[in-house]
Structure formats: structure tokens, C-alpha cells
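seq as requested:
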Amino acid sequence: MKPKVQIKNINKRNIWVILGVVLFVLQPLILPSKAGDFSQPWYFADISRNILGNALILLFFGINYFYLIPKLLFTKKYLEYGLCMFFGLLAVVMLPRSIFPQPFGPPPMMGPPPHMQQEGFFSHLQLVFSEVDHLVFLFIGMVFFSTFWFERMRNERIEREKLKAELSHLKMQIHPHFLFNTLNSIYASAIKKEDKTSEMVLVLSDFMRYLLQDSYQNQVLLEREVSYIENYVRLQTSRLRETVTISFTQNGDFSGLLISPLILFTFVENAFKYGVNPDQHSEIIIDISQENGILDFHCFNRIVNSENTESSNIGLKNTKERLSIFYPQKHNLDIQQDQQTFVVHLKIHLV
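C-alpha cells:
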């Protein structure tokens, strides 16, 4: 079941889109360029032509965005695309005049400019274009805007697919090594018939369910993300020796807030990956708190294992990229590292 916050955001966005469409189509009626009333035939025809022209421009925006740009422009079929633009412009300009022709006689107290009062085909054509020039400008603006917006959405889709691939790679890295060690620990506990065995199986089950199902969403409930990290820490603690000191604390109300999945997990995983050595005193401190929609995350570990730091750097780089995409100007990441310790302090504005 999707969070109510996400549904509210979608409904609000749809309302704004519908409102924008209505205002764009009815703009000639709301802000008319000429004074008059509907009892005058020329005024009714003028308003009707402009409303129909705006509606056709909006319709062509959809056709251009969803079909012409991906099928013609981005496949380098420039001639076909240009012809579609030309005939689209003709339809926007000529169709409203055909359906709502100008009544005989000029509007009261108004007439064509002096240089257009001469009769003839070219003077008539000049008069037509003087009345539809705003439709031409709107059409050209629509073409450029739809192309720009399509390119932007396309780049964002590519970036999201890249992040999904990186996230899937991260999950595949979590599975084998951690799962193997945890199952061995549960097996050893089962042989000893310890009471914690059944609890460890349930924690592992919940951990894997989150990893395989919930984490594929764009956003998850913050309380689920924190619970996932807590389960990971509990499973790690159950198999480690007493030489490892682990502190995990959480403060604040996490309900009702959303966060990108596994955005904190890289730092927690690195702490256990490079901060645990059975032959040395190891220490890991993790603190997660929330206040007024601001998530405060601290992670500290002593560096006792410096092998394969390249994969750690890749994971941190990917997490930084995800933070910059999902929380631009809404996060602050501070990483302090020396020869003995590694400290992460991350703040995210979730609302």
C-alpha cells in the first residue's frame, strides 16, 4: 500500500496541471485583447478563434511530446518532422478561421490599419497574419518548450535507470558475504539450541523482505529504513565477538516521513566492513535522529581493516550522487577520515 503522503502529492500535481490547461485554453476569454461583448458577432468569432487556437496548440504539444519528438526528431528524420511542424502550424492558424469566420463588416469603431485598406490578395493575407501572429508565436514557443522538456525528462529517466542499476549492484554485494556469515551464525546457534535462534531467523527474514521488495520503490517510509538498519546491526552483533563494541541509538518520531531506500546503508555497511577485526578492539557507533523533518545521521568506526577500499570509494561516490539527485540543496554530508577513524555526519531535510 502506497503512503498517503505520496498520493496527496500526486493529486496536488494533477490539480495544478488541470488548472494550467484550463487557464491556457480560456486565456482569450479571461484576458481578452479587445473590448466587446458576446452580443457582437465579431467579438464572439474573435474569442472563439483564439480559444480554439490555444486548444489546438495544447493538443499539438501532446502529439509533439509523446510521438513526433521520440519517433521523428530523435531518430534524425528531420524532413518528416519539419513537414509535421509546417502542417501543424497551418492547422493552428487556418482551422479556427475556417470554423469561426470573420463576420461581414469591421468591428464597430474599428477597422484595418490604413496600409491594409487596399483590396487584394496580399493585403488580405497580411490582415490574416496580423490577427494570428500571437498563435504563431505560441506555436513556436510550444515546439521549443516541448523539445526542451522532453530532453530534460529523458535525461532524468536515464539517470534514474543508472541509479537503479547501481542500487541493484549494491544489493547483490550485500547478499552473498553477509548472508553466508549470518546463516553460519544461525546454524551455530541452532546446534547450541540457543533461545535467540528463532528470533535471528525472523530478523533475517524481515531484512531480506525489505531488501528484495520495499527497497525497489523510489521512496520508502523512514521508519522502515531505520528498522532495516536496526535489523542489519542486530544480525551483525549476533555473530561478532566481544572484542567488537557496537552502539546503535535512534531518537525522534520517524513515522509519516519518506526517504530514498538504502541511502544510509552504504555508511553502515562500510562501518562493519572496515571497522571490524576479531583480533583488534573494534568500535562502531551509529546514531539516527529526527526532529522537525530533519534527519540527523552519525556513523563512527575505528579503521581496523583497510583491504579493498576501492569498492568502498565507489559505494560512497554512488551514494553522494544519489543524494545530489534526490535531495539537491536539502542535505549536508560531512565525512572525516584519518588513519584510525572514519566519521560520517549526514543531515537531510525530508519535508
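The chain is about 60% helix and 15% strand.
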